[in-house]
Amino acid sequence: MVEGIEKHYSVDDLVEAGVFATRATGWAWCRDRKIRHLRIGGAIIIPESAVREFLDRHTVEPSSKRLARRKCKCGKLFPLTRANSKYCSDSCKGKYGRSRRAYGEYEEAHQALLKVQRQLREGKEK
User: Fold this and answer.
1) Contact at 8 Å (CB) between 74 and 95?
2) Across the strands, what pairs with 103?
3) What is the model's pTM?
4) Domain ranges of the chain
5) I need a labelling partner for 38 at 20 to 30 A (CA). Which of 8, 24, 59, 115 fits?
6) Is residue 43 pLDDT above 70, yes or no?
């Protein structure tokens, strides 16, 4: 190797090394200019420094902070980023949204309505 010239890799080399999951991913990242590369003819060549920059940009550092979570009434844990919601999803909100007291009042009102409807039906039949 010549002094002062860094090593270059093909997309296939980086797939084998585990930098890209597939060849298509590597080509797409080059096409979208998310990683520095050289095009020589039909070949894509990626310098070692570009690979290091790519890995540095996409490395996630560990955090000692725990994400604040809340427990939904269905039992699932969910992050507090859902606009301070008490429920993990809209379907849970619909299912568990009423308190037991409110649900009981709803049930009583529903039964009263059914009773009135029955009485009206019986009045029409006579």
Assistant:
1) yes
2) none
3) 0.48
4) 8-57, 69-125
5) 59
6) yes
